[in-house]
Amino acid sequence: EPEVTQTPSHQVTQMGQEVILRCVPISNHLYFYWYRQILGQKVEFLVSFYNNEISEKSEIFDDQFSVERPDGSNFTLKIRSTKLEDSAMYFCASSDGGNNEQFFGPGTRLTVL
Amino acid sequence: RKEVEQDPGPFNVPEGATVAFNCTYSNSASQSFFWYRQDCRKEPKLLMSVYSSGNEDGRFTAQLNRASQYISLLIRDSKLSDSATYLCVVGRWGKLQFGAGTQVVVTP
Question: DSSP E strands: which ranges in A14-74?
């Protein structure tokens, strides 16, 4: 069964450093998403991406965040200058339609020291 | 008011019993509705989509009431492996809003 994959599984970084989180969505999906979950809290929407551009973003997704689809398979989330409060689990998801079911990757646990 | 509200539980359920819980959502323009399950420190896994006509998948039955803006989930013949946090999820133009989850603990 096709699945979303994410790398790395755990990333530790110093405050102020840049991080890039990587995702490989399900191959025939066209809609891509990033969510985050701070420990003990609910899953929060960050951004949606379709046709090589951002469709929607949340208030969390400020200028420090960017997304890119650098090739036909990868989808990345970059945080330019990490803050302590960026520590969270980051989930990538994909779907084959704008309102269809979304399938989540296993997540990247980001720890900012 | 929270976008999606759920009873956090925990719901302690004897193995083989039936458990039901629901959630409410605030945005009447919501377009899509789902139940996901999440095991500790893992990703949300899709359990089922939810429709106004109601839908069933094995031991799981989900129902959507658009007029009252609530979504329900019923689990029959609970298994130990059903222990998890169940996330009520509401979508609009692909943006998913998650509830904080209802914890279910199935006991032998």
Answer: 19-24, 31-37, 44-50, 53-57, 65-68
Between B31, B87, B100, which is nearest A99 by CB? Answer: B31
Residue B52 has pLDDT above 90, yes or no: no
The tokens of A28 are what?
Answer: 């025939």
Q: What is the pLDDT of residue B15?
A: 98
Distance from CA of B31 to the nearest CA of A (A): 7
Angle formed at CA B66 by CA A95 and CA B58, multiple of 5 degrees: 60
CA–CA dist B87, B36 (Å, integer)? 5
Instruction: Read off the pLDDT of residues A84-99 as tens digits, 9 standing for 90 and up.
Output: 999 999 999 999 988 8
Q: Which two tokens stand for residue B89?
A: 């999820």
Non-local (6+) Cβ contacts of A47 within 8 A are: A33, A34, A54, A56, A57, A58, A61, A65, A67, A77
At A111, is the secondary structure helix, strand, or coil?
strand
Q: Which of residues 21-60 of B touch A (CB under 8 A)?
A: 31-32, 34, 38, 41-46, 49
